[in-house]
Amino acid sequence: MTNFKNLMLGAVATTMLLVGAAKADDDVKLRLNWMYYGSHAGFALGKVKGFYKDAGINLDIRSGNGSGSAHRLVANGDSDFSYGSCGSMVNLASQGAALISVAVIDAMGADAVLVRPDAGITKISDLKGKKLLTTSNAGVNTFFPIVLSTAGLSPSDITLTNVPDGALVSSYLQGAGETVGMLGGIDDKPAEIKKNGGAAPVIFPYSSYGVNQIGYCIVARKDMVAKNPDLVKRFVQATIKSYKAAEANPDAAIAAIGDIVGGTMNEDEGKAQARAVLDVTLSLLYSAANKDRTLGLNVPSDWESMVTLMKKYNDLDPKVDAKQFYTNDFVK
C-alpha cells in the first residue's frame, strides 16, 4: 500500500513538472507606427531569430496608422506596446493617457520638410503661402509649429493637406492640390520617392530649426508596467538584443522583414529601399548625450530638452516634469 501511495505521489509530481515545463509563452501585440518599413527590421529580426520566443514571448507585430493612433491603441488596451514618435506620446500622456516610454530606439528625430526640387523653394521661409502634404496622426506634425516659429512663420502661413499614408508619396510626386512638398521622415521618404521615380527632394531637417527631439520610443501602459514588470523587462531586453543584431548584420534584418511580409520586400528593389531606410535608423540609435552608447536608453537631458520645447511651442502644460514620461528600469 505504501509503495502504491509513493507511486501515485511520484506521478502527481511528474505531471506538475510537465505542466510547468509546458507553460505557454506570453502573447504580446506590438503596434507599429505604420506598415512595415526598413526602420522596423530590428523587430522582424528578433521575431525570425527567436529572440522574443527565447524571452517567453509570442510576438504579434501589427501595422499602424501613425504614431498617435499606435499609442492610442496601447492606451485603450488593444495592443501591449507601440513603436512611434516620443513627442506624440508626450502629447497624449499630458492629456491623460497613462502611457510611458520604456525604451528609445531612434534617439534622434528624423522629421523634415521635403520639397520637390522643381518647386523653387530654397529656404524654409519660401514656404509662406504654400501648401504641404501630411498625414493625420503622423508624429511629424508634432514639432512642425516649432520649425515655423524658428523660421519666422506662423501655422496660418502654410496650408497642410492630409492624405492617407499610402497616398503621401504619390500625391507629393503629382503635386496634388497645388502642394509643393510634404512633412515626412528622412529615414524612409527619400528612399520611397526614389523608388517611385522622383528626384531627390530638397530637405529641411527639423533639427536645423531648433527641434532637438527624441525620435521613436517603445511605449507601454503605466498599469502594465506596474503589474507585470517582468514581461516589460523581457520585451525590452529582447528588443534591444534584436536591434543590436540588426546593427551587426543589417542585411539579415532586411531578410527577416522579407520573411514576414513577403511580396516586394523579397525583391531586390524592395530590399534596397528597406536597407536605405534601416541605415538611417541605425545612424540615429544613440544621441550625442548617450555617452556610453546604451541602446534603448531614455537619456534624461534629451527628454528635458524635448519637453522644454513642447512647453514653449506646443502648449504643453508648464507644470509637467520630463521624468514622468519615461523610465529606464527595463533598459539595463
TrEMBL record:
<feature type="domain" description="SsuA/THI5-like">
    <location>
        <begin position="39"/>
        <end position="253"/>
    </location>
</feature>
<feature type="signal peptide">
    <location>
        <begin position="1"/>
        <end position="24"/>
    </location>
</feature>
<dbReference type="InterPro" id="IPR027939">
    <property type="entry name" value="NMT1/THI5"/>
</dbReference>
<dbReference type="InterPro" id="IPR015168">
    <property type="entry name" value="SsuA/THI5"/>
</dbReference>
<keyword id="KW-0732">Signal</keyword>
<protein>
    <submittedName>
        <fullName>ABC transporter substrate-binding protein</fullName>
    </submittedName>
</protein>
<dbReference type="Pfam" id="PF09084">
    <property type="entry name" value="NMT1"/>
</dbReference>
